[in-house]
Amino acid sequence: MGQVRFGNVIVVPGHDGGRFPFCNSLLIDDGTRVIVDPGAGQEPLTRIREQAAIDVVFNTHFHFDHIIWNYLFDRSRVYLNDIEAGCYRDRGEIPLRLGMAEFYGEPWTGGWLERIARPDTPQSLYTPENRHEWWLSTARLGGTYRWGDVMDFGSTKMEIIGTPGHSAGFCCLYFPAEKVVYTGDIDITPFGPWYFGADGDIDLFIESARKIARLDADVYVTGHEAGIVGGEEFRRRLGMFLETIDRRDERILGALSEPRTYDDLCSMGLIYGRKFLVDDWLRAWDALAVKKHLQRLIARGAVTCRDGVFLLIHSPTDC
Ligand SMILES: [Zn+2]
Protein backbone atom coordinates (compact mmCIF):
# COMPACT_ATOMS: atom_id res chain seq x y z
CA MET A 1 0.00 0.00 0.00
CA GLY A 2 1.44 3.39 -0.98
CA GLN A 3 0.59 6.68 0.65
CA VAL A 4 -3.11 7.58 0.31
CA ARG A 5 -4.43 11.08 0.73
CA PHE A 6 -7.73 12.31 2.18
CA GLY A 7 -7.65 16.11 1.86
CA ASN A 8 -4.46 17.05 3.66
CA VAL A 9 -4.42 13.85 5.70
CA ILE A 10 -1.95 11.36 4.24
CA VAL A 11 -1.74 7.76 5.43
CA VAL A 12 1.88 6.60 5.70
CA PRO A 13 1.71 2.80 5.64
CA GLY A 14 3.84 1.08 8.24
CA HIS A 15 6.66 -1.27 7.30
CA ASP A 16 5.71 -4.98 7.30
CA GLY A 17 2.05 -4.13 6.78
CA GLY A 18 2.07 -2.03 9.94
CA ARG A 19 2.52 -5.14 12.08
CA PHE A 20 3.80 -4.54 15.60
CA PRO A 21 6.36 -3.10 16.36
CA PHE A 22 5.65 -0.90 13.30
CA CYS A 23 2.45 1.10 12.91
CA ASN A 24 0.66 3.07 10.22
CA SER A 25 1.36 6.79 10.66
CA LEU A 26 -0.38 9.91 9.41
CA LEU A 27 1.20 12.96 7.83
CA ILE A 28 -0.92 16.10 7.94
CA ASP A 29 0.35 18.22 5.08
CA ASP A 30 -1.12 21.59 6.00
CA GLY A 31 -0.03 25.03 7.25
CA THR A 32 1.16 23.19 10.32
CA ARG A 33 2.81 19.92 9.29
CA VAL A 34 2.18 17.06 11.66
CA ILE A 35 3.29 13.47 12.00
CA VAL A 36 0.90 11.30 14.00
CA ASP A 37 2.39 8.23 15.71
CA PRO A 38 5.76 7.93 13.95
CA GLY A 39 6.07 4.15 13.94
CA ALA A 40 5.85 3.55 10.17
CA GLY A 41 9.57 2.84 9.79
CA GLN A 42 12.87 4.67 9.83
CA GLU A 43 13.13 4.93 6.03
CA PRO A 44 9.72 6.49 5.17
CA LEU A 45 9.88 8.80 8.18
CA THR A 46 13.41 9.96 7.37
CA ARG A 47 12.22 10.72 3.83
CA ILE A 48 9.31 12.79 5.20
CA ARG A 49 11.66 14.68 7.49
CA GLU A 50 13.92 15.51 4.55
CA GLN A 51 11.05 16.72 2.32
CA ALA A 52 9.92 19.60 4.56
CA ALA A 53 10.05 20.60 8.21
CA ILE A 54 7.64 18.85 10.55
CA ASP A 55 6.20 21.20 13.17
CA VAL A 56 4.44 18.75 15.43
CA VAL A 57 4.87 15.10 16.38
CA PHE A 58 1.58 13.90 17.81
CA ASN A 59 1.46 10.70 19.91
CA THR A 60 -1.95 9.10 20.55
CA HIS A 61 -0.44 7.34 23.58
CA PHE A 62 2.94 6.48 25.05
CA HIS A 63 3.38 2.89 23.79
CA PHE A 64 6.67 2.08 22.11
CA ASP A 65 5.37 1.15 18.66
CA HIS A 66 3.60 4.53 18.28
CA ILE A 67 6.47 6.74 19.42
CA ILE A 68 9.55 4.81 18.30
CA TRP A 69 10.77 7.39 15.75
CA ASN A 70 9.82 10.57 17.65
CA TYR A 71 13.53 11.19 18.02
CA LEU A 72 14.05 11.60 14.27
CA PHE A 73 12.06 14.84 14.43
CA ASP A 74 14.42 16.61 16.78
CA ARG A 75 13.24 20.11 15.87
CA SER A 76 9.51 19.36 16.20
CA ARG A 77 7.25 19.80 19.21
CA VAL A 78 6.21 16.42 20.61
CA TYR A 79 2.65 16.27 21.96
CA LEU A 80 1.23 13.60 24.24
CA ASN A 81 -2.10 13.45 26.09
CA ASP A 82 -2.13 15.11 29.51
CA ILE A 83 -2.96 11.80 31.26
CA GLU A 84 0.24 10.04 30.16
CA ALA A 85 2.52 13.06 29.70
CA GLY A 86 4.36 12.13 32.89
CA CYS A 87 5.97 9.26 30.92
CA TYR A 88 8.06 11.83 29.03
CA ARG A 89 8.88 13.83 32.16
CA ASP A 90 9.93 10.85 34.24
CA ARG A 91 10.39 7.54 32.44
CA GLY A 92 9.67 5.70 35.69
CA GLU A 93 5.99 6.17 34.86
CA ILE A 94 6.31 3.92 31.78
CA PRO A 95 6.87 0.60 33.61
CA LEU A 96 4.18 1.61 36.11
CA ARG A 97 1.62 2.05 33.34
CA LEU A 98 2.74 -1.05 31.46
CA GLY A 99 2.31 -3.21 34.57
CA MET A 100 5.98 -4.12 34.93
CA ALA A 101 6.27 -2.36 38.29
CA GLU A 102 3.28 -4.34 39.56
CA PHE A 103 4.57 -7.67 38.23
CA TYR A 104 8.33 -7.47 38.82
CA GLY A 105 8.81 -4.64 41.31
CA GLU A 106 11.21 -1.75 41.46
CA PRO A 107 14.63 -3.42 41.03
CA TRP A 108 13.49 -4.89 37.71
CA THR A 109 12.06 -1.62 36.40
CA GLY A 110 15.18 0.25 37.50
CA GLY A 111 17.26 -2.29 35.57
CA TRP A 112 15.08 -1.79 32.52
CA LEU A 113 15.52 1.98 32.63
CA GLU A 114 19.29 1.46 32.77
CA ARG A 115 19.14 -0.94 29.83
CA ILE A 116 17.19 1.34 27.51
CA ALA A 117 19.54 4.22 28.32
CA ARG A 118 22.31 2.27 26.53
CA PRO A 119 22.41 2.07 22.72
CA ASP A 120 23.94 -1.43 22.83
CA THR A 121 21.44 -2.96 25.25
CA PRO A 122 20.66 -6.68 24.77
CA GLN A 123 17.26 -7.22 23.18
CA SER A 124 14.27 -9.18 24.43
CA LEU A 125 13.38 -12.31 22.56
CA TYR A 126 9.90 -11.52 21.31
CA THR A 127 9.33 -7.84 22.15
CA PRO A 128 11.10 -4.61 21.21
CA GLU A 129 10.77 -3.32 24.75
CA ASN A 130 14.48 -3.15 25.48
CA ARG A 131 15.23 -0.95 22.52
CA HIS A 132 17.16 2.27 23.01
CA GLU A 133 14.59 4.24 20.97
CA TRP A 134 12.36 4.08 24.09
CA TRP A 135 14.92 6.36 25.69
CA LEU A 136 15.53 8.64 22.73
CA SER A 137 11.87 9.14 21.87
CA THR A 138 10.69 9.94 25.39
CA ALA A 139 13.33 12.62 25.94
CA ARG A 140 11.23 15.66 24.98
CA LEU A 141 7.70 16.84 25.64
CA GLY A 142 6.68 19.94 23.71
CA GLY A 143 3.08 20.11 24.87
CA THR A 144 0.03 18.20 26.02
CA TYR A 145 -3.49 17.93 24.71
CA ARG A 146 -6.78 16.82 26.24
CA TRP A 147 -9.57 14.60 25.03
CA GLY A 148 -12.15 16.74 23.28
CA ASP A 149 -9.60 19.27 22.01
CA VAL A 150 -9.92 20.25 18.36
CA MET A 151 -6.55 21.03 16.82
CA ASP A 152 -6.51 23.32 13.80
CA PHE A 153 -3.57 22.87 11.42
CA GLY A 154 -4.68 25.37 8.77
CA SER A 155 -7.52 23.91 6.76
CA THR A 156 -7.49 20.57 8.59
CA LYS A 157 -9.30 20.17 11.88
CA MET A 158 -8.55 17.17 14.09
CA GLU A 159 -10.79 16.24 16.98
CA ILE A 160 -9.27 14.20 19.80
CA ILE A 161 -11.66 11.46 20.90
CA GLY A 162 -10.90 10.04 24.35
CA THR A 163 -10.85 6.25 23.98
CA PRO A 164 -9.39 4.76 27.18
CA GLY A 165 -9.06 1.02 27.72
CA HIS A 166 -6.00 0.27 25.59
CA SER A 167 -4.11 2.65 27.84
CA ALA A 168 -5.51 5.26 30.22
CA GLY A 169 -4.87 8.26 27.98
CA PHE A 170 -5.26 6.62 24.57
CA CYS A 171 -7.19 8.58 21.95
CA CYS A 172 -8.47 8.18 18.43
CA LEU A 173 -8.36 11.07 15.96
CA TYR A 174 -11.36 12.26 14.00
CA PHE A 175 -11.15 14.46 10.91
CA PRO A 176 -14.78 15.54 10.47
CA ALA A 177 -14.41 17.30 7.10
CA GLU A 178 -12.54 14.34 5.59
CA LYS A 179 -14.76 11.82 7.46
CA VAL A 180 -11.65 9.92 8.47
CA VAL A 181 -10.85 8.31 11.84
CA TYR A 182 -7.36 7.20 12.92
CA THR A 183 -8.11 4.31 15.27
CA GLY A 184 -4.60 3.58 16.57
CA ASP A 185 -4.74 0.36 18.55
CA ILE A 186 -8.45 -0.26 18.13
CA ASP A 187 -6.97 -2.02 15.17
CA ILE A 188 -9.27 -4.98 14.29
CA THR A 189 -6.27 -7.37 14.17
CA PRO A 190 -6.82 -11.14 14.51
CA PHE A 191 -4.85 -11.03 17.80
CA GLY A 192 -7.61 -8.96 19.38
CA PRO A 193 -7.69 -6.03 21.80
CA TRP A 194 -4.70 -5.24 24.01
CA TYR A 195 -5.54 -3.92 27.47
CA PHE A 196 -2.91 -5.84 29.41
CA GLY A 197 -1.02 -2.94 30.97
CA ALA A 198 -1.78 -1.79 34.52
CA ASP A 199 -3.65 1.17 33.01
CA GLY A 200 -5.66 -0.95 30.56
CA ASP A 201 -9.32 -1.84 31.11
CA ILE A 202 -11.47 -4.37 29.26
CA ASP A 203 -14.86 -2.66 29.70
CA LEU A 204 -13.48 0.76 28.78
CA PHE A 205 -11.85 -0.73 25.68
CA ILE A 206 -15.20 -2.10 24.49
CA GLU A 207 -16.98 1.18 25.23
CA SER A 208 -14.30 3.17 23.36
CA ALA A 209 -14.42 0.86 20.35
CA ARG A 210 -18.19 1.30 20.11
CA LYS A 211 -17.82 5.05 20.47
CA ILE A 212 -15.58 5.38 17.40
CA ALA A 213 -17.82 3.04 15.41
CA ARG A 214 -20.64 5.59 15.88
CA LEU A 215 -18.68 8.52 14.38
CA ASP A 216 -19.84 9.95 11.08
CA ALA A 217 -16.91 8.52 9.10
CA ASP A 218 -16.41 6.92 5.71
CA VAL A 219 -12.85 5.78 6.32
CA TYR A 220 -11.09 4.22 9.30
CA VAL A 221 -7.29 4.04 9.38
CA THR A 222 -6.06 1.42 11.82
CA GLY A 223 -2.71 1.72 13.57
CA HIS A 224 -1.73 -1.83 12.56
CA GLU A 225 -2.26 -4.30 9.73
CA ALA A 226 -5.63 -3.53 8.11
CA GLY A 227 -4.76 0.10 7.32
CA ILE A 228 -7.47 1.88 5.34
CA VAL A 229 -10.90 0.35 5.83
CA GLY A 230 -14.35 1.57 4.79
CA GLY A 231 -16.81 2.48 7.53
CA GLU A 232 -19.11 -0.48 7.03
CA GLU A 233 -16.27 -2.97 6.91
CA PHE A 234 -14.64 -1.47 9.99
CA ARG A 235 -17.85 -1.83 12.00
CA ARG A 236 -18.27 -5.45 10.91
CA ARG A 237 -14.67 -6.42 11.67
CA LEU A 238 -14.79 -4.53 14.97
CA GLY A 239 -17.46 -6.98 16.13
CA MET A 240 -15.15 -9.94 15.47
CA PHE A 241 -12.25 -8.11 17.07
CA LEU A 242 -14.18 -7.55 20.30
CA GLU A 243 -15.35 -11.18 20.33
CA THR A 244 -11.71 -12.14 20.94
CA ILE A 245 -12.28 -10.93 24.49
CA ASP A 246 -14.99 -13.56 24.97
CA ARG A 247 -12.72 -16.24 23.53
CA ARG A 248 -10.06 -15.34 26.09
CA ASP A 249 -12.72 -15.70 28.81
CA GLU A 250 -13.61 -19.11 27.37
CA ARG A 251 -9.98 -20.26 27.39
CA ILE A 252 -9.69 -19.38 31.06
CA LEU A 253 -12.98 -21.12 31.84
CA GLY A 254 -11.69 -24.15 29.92
CA ALA A 255 -8.47 -24.13 31.94
CA LEU A 256 -10.60 -24.10 35.09
CA SER A 257 -12.17 -27.44 34.22
CA GLU A 258 -10.06 -28.29 37.24
CA PRO A 259 -9.33 -25.81 40.05
CA ARG A 260 -6.09 -23.92 39.59
CA THR A 261 -4.01 -21.31 41.33
CA TYR A 262 -3.22 -18.00 39.66
CA ASP A 263 0.37 -19.18 39.14
CA ASP A 264 -0.91 -22.34 37.41
CA LEU A 265 -3.04 -20.25 35.07
CA CYS A 266 -0.12 -17.93 34.35
CA SER A 267 2.11 -20.86 33.37
CA MET A 268 -0.30 -21.98 30.63
CA GLY A 269 0.21 -19.14 28.12
CA LEU A 270 -3.55 -18.64 27.86
CA ILE A 271 -3.24 -15.27 26.14
CA TYR A 272 -0.04 -15.33 24.07
CA GLY A 273 0.72 -19.05 23.92
CA ARG A 274 3.12 -20.95 26.13
CA LYS A 275 6.26 -20.54 24.00
CA PHE A 276 6.16 -16.76 24.43
CA LEU A 277 6.38 -16.96 28.21
CA VAL A 278 10.19 -17.04 27.97
CA ASP A 279 10.03 -13.30 27.28
CA ASP A 280 9.81 -11.16 30.44
CA TRP A 281 7.38 -8.69 28.89
CA LEU A 282 5.00 -11.22 27.40
CA ARG A 283 5.07 -13.34 30.57
CA ALA A 284 4.01 -10.32 32.63
CA TRP A 285 1.32 -9.22 30.17
CA ASP A 286 -0.07 -12.75 29.90
CA ALA A 287 -0.38 -12.85 33.70
CA LEU A 288 -1.87 -9.35 33.92
CA ALA A 289 -4.39 -10.19 31.21
CA VAL A 290 -5.36 -13.42 33.01
CA LYS A 291 -5.87 -11.38 36.17
CA LYS A 292 -8.16 -8.89 34.41
CA HIS A 293 -10.20 -11.72 32.90
CA LEU A 294 -10.46 -13.53 36.25
CA GLN A 295 -11.80 -10.33 37.83
CA ARG A 296 -14.35 -10.10 35.03
CA LEU A 297 -15.40 -13.74 35.39
CA ILE A 298 -15.69 -13.37 39.17
CA ALA A 299 -17.82 -10.23 38.77
CA ARG A 300 -20.04 -12.16 36.38
CA GLY A 301 -20.46 -15.00 38.91
CA ALA A 302 -18.77 -17.62 36.71
CA VAL A 303 -15.64 -18.12 38.82
CA THR A 304 -14.79 -17.92 42.49
CA CYS A 305 -11.57 -18.01 44.47
CA ARG A 306 -11.10 -20.07 47.63
CA ASP A 307 -7.84 -20.15 49.56
CA GLY A 308 -5.92 -18.95 46.54
CA VAL A 309 -7.51 -21.49 44.19
CA PHE A 310 -9.77 -20.44 41.32
CA LEU A 311 -12.69 -22.64 40.41
CA LEU A 312 -15.81 -22.60 38.30
CA ILE A 313 -18.87 -21.75 40.37
CA HIS A 314 -20.91 -24.59 38.88
CA SER A 315 -18.11 -27.13 38.70
CA PRO A 316 -18.63 -30.46 40.54
CA THR A 317 -15.82 -29.51 42.94
CA ASP A 318 -17.95 -26.59 44.09
CA CYS A 319 -20.86 -28.71 45.26
ZN1 LIG B 1 -0.59 0.85 22.07
Features:
about 325 residues, alpha+beta, Metallo-beta-lactamase, Chain A, 2 domains, 7-stranded mixed beta sheet, 6-stranded mixed beta sheet, 11 helices, 16 strands, about 35% helix, binds zinc ion
Describe it for me?
The structure is a single chain. The chain is α+β, with helices and mostly antiparallel strands and 319 residues long. The protein has two domains: 4-239, Ribonuclease Z/Hydroxyacylglutathione hydrolase-like (Metallo-beta-lactamase, Chain A); 252-318, no CATH class. The protein is built from eleven helices and 16 strands. The chain has helices at 42-51, 64-67, 86-89, 93-98, 100-104, 106-116, 133-136, 202-213, 231-255, 262-266, 280-299; strands spanning 4-6, 9-12, 25-29, 33-36, 56-58, 77-81, 143-145, 150-152, 157-162, 171-175, 180-184, 219-222, 228-230, 260-261, 303-306, 309-312. The strands form three sheets. Strands 1-2-3-4-5-6-7 form a seven-stranded mixed sheet, with no helix packed on it. Strands 8-9-10-11-12-13 form a six-stranded mixed sheet. A three-stranded antiparallel sheet has the order 14-16-15. α8 packs antiparallel against α9 (231-255). The protein starts with a strand and ends in a 7-residue tail after the last strand. The relative contact order is 0.12. Bound molecules: zinc ion. Zinc ion binds at residues 61, 63, 66, 166, 185.
List the helices and strands and how they pair.
Blueprint: E1 4-6, E2 9-12, E3 25-29, E4 33-36, H1 42-51, E5 56-58, H2 64-67, E6 77-81, H3 86-89, H4 93-98, H5 100-104, H6 106-116, H7 133-136, E7 143-145, E8 150-152, E9 157-162, E10 171-175, E11 180-184, H8 202-213, E12 219-222, E13 228-230, H9 231-255, E14 260-261, H10 262-266, H11 280-299, E15 303-306, E16 309-312
Parallel strand pairs: 4-5, 5-6, 6-7, 11-12
Antiparallel strand pairs: 1-2, 2-3, 3-4, 8-9, 9-10, 10-11, 12-13, 14-16, 15-16
Helix pairs in contact: 8-9
Bound molecules: zinc ion (ZN).
Zinc ion binds next to loops.
